[in-house]
Amino acid sequence: MDDTLVICIGDNGFHWADHGLGGKGVPHRPAHEVPFYLSWPAGGLGGGTTDDRIAANVDIAPTALDAAGIAPDTPHDGRSLLGGRSRAHLLIEWWRQGAGTEGQNTWSS
Q: What is the reported pTM?
């Protein structure tokens, strides 16, 4: 396990009428801020370290490739979390699906 990169990411929370809205596709922090854990003792990511950088699921593939020493042939939207790069913001959005009137409206922030 010391030489294994372990990535665990949680599921976003379900709103039970918080802010008068239900579901997961709502523009409020508990719906998109989820636990994201990395462990790789051989790579210097041992227990007890906290990193407050903004990370997203698009960062998983670049991180795994970086850990394996593989440089991708094409650019990725995400960034390796093994380096010191950080982002100031992250686009989050929700698209209304289907033609019905149920569900959340399309939004982005």
A: 0.77
